[in-house]
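The records we work with from here on pair a chain with its fold. Each token is a code from a learned vocabulary of local backbone shapes. A record is reproduced here so that you can trace the correspondence yourselves:

_____
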Amino acid sequence: MSAFPNKVRIVEVGARDGLQNEKTVSTADKVALINALSAAGLKDIEAGAFVSPKWVPQMADSADVISALDLPNVNLSALTPNLKGAQAAHAVGIKEFAIFTAASESFCQKNINCSIEQSIERFSEVMAFAKANNIRVRGYVSCVLGCPYEGEINPQAVLSVSKKLLDLGCYEVSLGDTIGVGTAKKVTQLIELLLTHIDKAKLAVHFHDTYGQALTNIYAALSLGIATVDAA
């Protein structure tokens, strides 16, 4: 039985998740892009990432980008993997943080050099800082439908990580098909499992279109009542 939502919230992540994969985009062009996204009607935009410029040089100017924006009607968020990043994001007026981990131990080790459990523990400082400053925190779970190192991912692993992020204080968890291997059937199976433990209002979906399945996968999620979709 389908339960399509009456309204869908789109979280635009292209200015971060998209541009971090490009070689060089000027600060001015990033500002122009985000302004254009706002002009198109988007109200939730992830505007940058406060991460080490050594590892992600594409995001080194995030503070400059956000400081140059004047979008009072837009919820600007930023990726803040640690307390230093959270403090820097707060300093330029960010009112929503994003933290990320994975449903794959191998992916977690390769990308953030720690176990899933350690990644959750690391976020405690970010969560405490966010709570003290009245900032919402959104959680990302990578590799929910497949991992480049482990292949298939057990849906129970996704459930476990999602619950831990929500227990930590995230208002929402975005389920990321990081390598785009998901199919509508797998999406349906995963979300049906999660909905037996988690309110649909706390789940979002984030599908990469590597094999042309993103729109089909979004449709499958919408049919189960998921009302927040990441886009780029």
